[in-house]
Recover the amino acids of this structure.
């Protein structure tokens, strides 16, 4: 979804760090005459201007297509990746790694909410509808809890007494105990907010006697709070605060518990990793799957007014929804969703419409139907994964965006046009060797190297064909760099760095040859030099590796580049260093305990510059900007509209547009774009 917000600090001209890195030498492409060409569309070139006879003939450089965007901030996330859903009147609210979406049950129309609308973080884990006493949609995310007024569409953060900053942390579970005017919060234990009396009580392993601080489910049976730990049993908190622990030592068949509910006959049911448990007469029983058709892993339970029990499963693979009859202990209705597990479900109205959330979007199952219909947010939901980990610009001026689930090719002149997607598919030819694209390195002839976490090193030849390098030495490569001879250096943890030319190994280097100790994070092409950074800093020049700084002098190098004035900047986990022509270091930025700009617990993750010399640093806690060559800094966070404070990659395209990528494999961040 595209959003726009005038955002002065970020609407600055920027230029890519990747410019001038040199042209890597690619491997010989395999013969794939029948493989479809799928390279990005080349940027159009303008005709050369006419020349007078008295002047020597000149050829103009190709002109870039006109930028099709207004000044502002744009966010691209995929809101079809759902963690939880909740019903409020005629609306279904679905939250996940790409934000919050409200769906009108009658019309099927939707509205998407992101950090530009007031959310404090894009990645949502829990959604509840609750009258507090006014109706609110309660949203648990990476930075605490937000409250959405469903009438006005405005957000506010939840504030509870006696908690200080604790609600600035991830809240993964919520439960609205409407009958008792309480909101339950799951985060490193349980918080009980009595919104009628404005009191707040915490229960943890150390404070309150829980068996575990991890929370996988919350519910209320009577006035007892059931806390499902997902690992160490079910904890029952009585109204007087006394905690009773149910686990394998007390006869519980499976203590990896996720959910609980009580049916009208008084039986308590618990969903676990081993299936459905029955608790009656202080005795535990595991419902046999072989005779009941109950799913093997039960993550959600709901006790219906007719005495039946509804449950769902969230495995890797086919998800299931079961209407369980406690009398026969079988599923009277069993629905399967073959593409994914069921994250959450809601039963709606007398017609018993079943809405359920998956990582493939919201699904609606109607009575008598075997197949659900998908309700998808289609407008601008081009991003395959909300974890963006790498970017690069190819020779066709197309932006490559690496995510946790494939590589996109985006036209930076007009990102509203269709995006190309490359992702590995089993038994499918001419595709990359992985999906988690952790690094992208441009090469000559419009080619690109792709480095994958949990995948094989791959090379795109610019003409639509992929080469995948098989074998363990090419699996989960850390990065690739290009030396002055145009050869590709391949770095992997716990093995020598090897050099490739035309797809073959031609050299190998170790610490005995001068490489830094430990992991190498950076290979930076700098004219006739290749800088090698990690736990120390070395350079490759004239065919030799020369150590420049050891691990004590320059450890934790994560990024390198030349600034506008030609000085070499070295970004480390905890500092930014400028090296002069004699490699004498000057500290421009260093983490300090308690600093509002860059504290000692924050790490630098990436670096970029704009054409006027402004420095952009991606960090684990926001974006840092310096317009005065590092003398002073401004920090941008989710409070300013970015989707996440964990910035994985910073990049600038040929239009001086700043791009940010964030998130991880479990939390969303998405793709952000700032047009000057």
């Amino acid at each position: 979804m595209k959003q726009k917000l005038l955002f002065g600090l970020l609407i600055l001209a920027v230029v890519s760090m990747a410019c001038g890195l040199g042209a890597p030498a690619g491997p010989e492409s395999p013969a794939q005459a029948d493989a479809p060409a799928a390279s990005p569309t080349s940027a159009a070139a303008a005709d050369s201007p006419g020349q007078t006879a008295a002047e020597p003939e000149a050829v103009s450089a190709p002109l870039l297509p006109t930028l099709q965007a207004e000044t502002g901030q744009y966010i691209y996330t995929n809101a079809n990746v759902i963690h939880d859903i909740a019903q409020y009147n005629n609306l279904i609210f679905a939250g996940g790694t790409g934000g919050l979406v409200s769906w009108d049950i009658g019309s099927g129309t939707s509205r998407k909410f992101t950090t530009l609308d007031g959310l404090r973080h894009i990645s949502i884990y829990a959604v509840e509808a609750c009258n507090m006493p006014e109706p609110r949609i309660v949203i648990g995310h990476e930075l605490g809890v937000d409250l959405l007024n469903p009438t006005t569409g405005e957000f506010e953060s939840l504030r509870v007494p006696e908690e200080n900053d604790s609600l600035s942390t991830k809240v993964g579970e919520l439960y609205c105990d409407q009958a008792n005017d309480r909101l339950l919060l799951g985060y490193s234990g349980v918080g009980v907010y009595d919104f009628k009396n404005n009191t707040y009580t915490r229960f943890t392993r150390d404070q309150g006697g829980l068996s575990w601080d991890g929370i996988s489910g919350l519910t209320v049976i009577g006035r007892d709070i059931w806390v499902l730990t997902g690992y160490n049993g079910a904890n029952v908190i009585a109204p007087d605060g006394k905690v009773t622990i149910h686990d394998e030592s007390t006869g519980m068949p499976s203590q990896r518990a996720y959910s609980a509910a009580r049916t009208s006959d008084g039986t308590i049911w618990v969903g676990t990793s081993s299936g459905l448990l029955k608790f009656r007469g202080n005795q535990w029983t595991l419902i046999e799957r072989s005779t009941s058709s109950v799913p093997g892993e039960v993550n959600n339970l709901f006790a219906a007014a007719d005495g039946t029990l509804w449950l769902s499963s969230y495995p890797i693979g086919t998800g299931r929804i079961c209407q369980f009859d406690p009398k026969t202990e079988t599923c009277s209705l069993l629905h399967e969703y073959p593409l994914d597990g069921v994250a959450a479900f809601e039963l709606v109205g007398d017609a018993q419409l079943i809405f359920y959330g998956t990582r493939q979007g919201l699904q609606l199952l109607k009575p008598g139907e075997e197949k659900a219909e998908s309700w998808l947010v289609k407008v601008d939901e081009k991003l395959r994964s909300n974890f963006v980990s790498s970017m690069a610009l190819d020779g066709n001026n197309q932006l490559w965006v690496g995510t946790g689930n494939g590589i996109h090719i985006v036209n930076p002149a007009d990102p509203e046009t269709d995006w190309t997607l490359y992702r590995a598919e089993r038994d499918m030819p001419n595709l990359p060797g992985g999906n988690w694209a952790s690094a992208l390195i441009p090469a000559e002839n419009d080619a690109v190297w792709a480095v994958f976490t949990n995948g094989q090193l791959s090379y795109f030849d610019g003409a639509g064909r992929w080469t995948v390098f098989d074998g363990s030495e090419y699996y989960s490569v850390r990065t690739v760099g290009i030396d002055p001879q145009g050869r590709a250096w391949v770095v992997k943890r716990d093995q020598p760095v090897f050099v490739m030319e035309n797809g073959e190994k031609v050299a190998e280097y170790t610490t005995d040859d001068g490489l830094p100790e430990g992991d190498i994070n950076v290979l930076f092409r700098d004219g006739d030099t290749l800088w090698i950074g990690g736990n120390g800093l070395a350079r490759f020049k004239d065919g030799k590796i020369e150590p420049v700084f050891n691990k004590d002098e320059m450890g934790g190098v994560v990024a390198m580049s030349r600034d506008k004035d030609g000085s070499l900047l070295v970004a480390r986990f905890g500092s930014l260093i400028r090296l002069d022509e004699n490699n004498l270091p000057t500290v421009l930025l260093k983490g300090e305990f308690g600093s509002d700009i860059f504290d000692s617990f924050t790490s630098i993750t990436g670096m970029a510059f704009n054409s006027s010399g402004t420095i952009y640093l991606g960090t684990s806690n926001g974006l840092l900007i310096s317009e005065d060559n590092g003398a002073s800094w401004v920090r941008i966070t989710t409070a300013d509209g970015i989707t996440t404070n964990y910035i994985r990659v910073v990049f600038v395209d040929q239009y001086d547009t700043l791009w940010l990528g964030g998130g991880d494999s479990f939390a969303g961040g998405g793709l952000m774009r700032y047009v000057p």
Confidence is low (pLDDT under 50) at residues 1-9, 11-61. The longest helix spans residues 289-292. DSSP finds two helices and 55 strands in the chain. Residues 385 and 444 are 28 Å apart (CA to CA).
